[in-house]
Write a structure and sequence with these properties.
This protein is α+β, with helices and mostly antiparallel strands and 153 residues long. It has a single domain, classed as Beta-Lactamase (2-Layer Sandwich). It has a six-stranded antiparallel sheet, with helices on both faces. Helix 1 runs antiparallel to helix 2 and helix 1 packs parallel to helix 4. Bound molecules: methionine sulfoxide (SME). Methionine sulfoxide binds next to helix 3 and strand 6.
Length: 153
């Protein structure tokens, strides 16, 4: 999807999500709602979900899409890289990312955004996969970071 079209779609999603998340201050309800809206409004999102650091293990949390790995091998792959480097990582071709963990062989590109709690600590990541190469850009990075801020408002 072109960046301009994507930007418009994120704007509408953001308005919708801002209304929805304010109905509950339960963090899990907000996370689940964000995943459902993103996954169903962005047709190129093939897998959309959270991995959360749980006693040193990057463990899958709520998600939409095909069954995923429960636990990601420590310090390997894109999710751990984004978590350890504390920054959003956009991968145009997952097959070229050293150590990429393929939970589903149909994924070809990916974006991983760190999830921060109320006091700014990184507690996990939002991970989104696409079946196409180079599906994600700076537009996704900027909007997804902004959307994640809704969880702890
Ligand atoms: N590809 C991720 C693993 C999670 S799945 O994509 C759902 C990674 O390399 O960390």
């Amino acid at each position: 999807m072109e960046d301009k079209k994507k930007d418009g779609r994120y704007q509408r999603i953001y308005i919708q999500l801002s209304g929805l998340v304010l109905k509950s201050n339960n963090t899990q309800a907000r996370m689940a709602t964000i995943i459902a809206v993103l996954h169903h409004k962005m047709d190129f999102f093939f897998w959309t979900g959270f991995y959360l650091a749980d006693n040193g293990k990057m463990t899958v949390s709520m998600y939409q899409g095909p069954v995923a790995c429960q636990i990601l091998e420590k310090d390997k792959g894109v999710c751990w890289a984004a978590y350890n480097q504390q920054r959003t990582i956009v991968v145009e071709d997952v097959h070229e990312f050293p150590g990429h963990i393929a939970c589903d062989s149909r994924s070809n590109s990916e974006i991983v955004v760190p999830l921060k709690n109320k006091i700014g600590e990184i507690i996990g990541v939002l991970d989104i996969d696409s079946k196409d190469k180079a599906s994600f850009s700076e537009v996704d990075a900027r909007w997804l970071e902004k959307i994640l801020e809704l969880i702890y408002i």
